[in-house]
Specification:
- By secondary structure, the chain is an alpha+beta fold.
- Helix content is about 15%, strand content about 30%.
- The chain folds into 2 domains: about 210 residues, Trefoil (Trefoil (Acidic Fibroblast Growth Factor, subunit A)); about 40 residues.
- The protein contains 1 helix and 20 strands.
- The chain starts with 9 loop residues before the first strand and ends in a 28-residue tail after the last strand.
Length: about 325
């Protein structure tokens, strides 16, 4: 049976075996440095962004699936089998995805569908496992947990979901839409064209694990970068101001210390005075000047020291001289 005709401009709800009380959902790319997310079943909330799926056709049999919550660059795929052989689906970012994001949709013949991906091949189908999802290796009909239904919902009308940038291939959906008076939902027939030479057919037995994020992956947003730059600029300005104040204060202290040192060692001043003869003279380093204050008038008496006193010897008698040859009396 041929694959279903899917409208790339509509959201779909994905359920199992007509059980509309539980719908497949996905998270955003919260894990592995923003390259992976989770997918599982939750209580039905068709208008919740986590349960709105776009089924984007690459050709008549192969599709990629993404949610409004995960964004235009997050696709459901699968990771390699664990030690128990269990293969769990997950959400992968487009630039690190592998062939498991390419899904083939085939019919069971009762209006429900099975999904197989290019990473695990036709030997595995996407299946519900309680509240989770797995790639089930038992594909013999009937398999109730592999019977998928697609319920069409609101129109997408978002330019971001009009193309796919995946594994080096840029795919754009061209639509011819018509709007009926009873509904504002656009219906369309679509075709996908690849701008890169990539085959949309799914290999049967290839399985690769998600690679690490490429160096060109998105980092900080422009506002965040601007904020960091402004903060660094302010910090640098504050540092310069503090440094300037510190240098100025240091210079002021140095000048004050130099002035105090110069004042402590003033040159020796020579005092002038008059000696006892009334002649002007100078007091040397060994002489002491004594000043006596008298009352409030400030009269000062200077006693030069030492004082030289000269005595006139002209009026004194000369000493008597004795003859040395006078004989001794008998």
């Amino acid at each position: 049976m041929a694959a279903p005709t899917m409208d790339p401009n509509s959201w779909y709800s994905l359920s199992i075996a007509g059980d509309s009380s539980s719908l497949l959902m996905s998270t955003n790319l919260f894990s592995r440095s923003g390259t992976a997310g989770a997918t599982f079943f939750a209580s039905a909330a068709p208008d919740n962004s986590t349960q709105r799926w776009q089924v984007f056709p690459l050709n008549t049999t192969t599709f990629v699936l993404r949610t409004q919550e995960g964004g235009a660059n997050a696709f459901i795929g699968s990771q390699p089998a664990d030690s128990n052989g269990r293969i769990a689906p997950l959400m992968l970012r487009g630039d690190v995805a592998d062939e498991s994001v390419f899904w083939t949709i085939g019919g069971w013949g009762d209006g429900t569908w099975f999904l197989a991906n290019g990473g695990n091949g036709s030997a595995y189908h996407l299946a519900r496992n309680r509240t989770g999802v797995v790639m089930d290796g038992n594909v013999t009909a009937p398999q109730n947990e592999q019977r998928w239904g697609f319920e069409k919902g609101r129109a997408i009308d978002d330019e971001r979901y009009s193309s796919v940038n995946l594994l080096g291939a840029s795919l754009t959906a061209s639509t011819e839409a018509s709007t009926t008076p009873s509904s504002n939902t656009a219906t369309a027939t679509s075709s996908a064209s690849a701008s890169a030479s990539a085959s949309a057919s799914a290999p049967a037995d290839s399985s690769t694990s998600p690679t690490h994020p490429s160096s060109s992956s998105s980092g900080l947003s422009t506002p965040a970068k601007a904020g960091i730059g402004a903060a660094l600029g302010i910090a640098a300005l504050i540092t310069l101001v503090v440094l300037g104040l510190f240098l100025r204060r240091r210079r002021t202290r140095k000048q004050a210390a130099t002035a105090a040192q110069d004042k402590a060692y003033e040159p020796y001043q020579v005092a002038h005075y008059q000696d006892a003869s009334g002649m002007p003279g100078q007091r040397g380093e060994g002489e002491i000047k004594h000043e006596l204050g008298q009352g409030s008038e400030g009269v000062k008496y200077e006693l030069p020291q030492p004082t030289v006193v000269e005595v006139d010897a002209r009026g004194q008698e000369r000493p008597a001289e004795l003859m040395g040859d006078v004989g001794r009396r008998s």
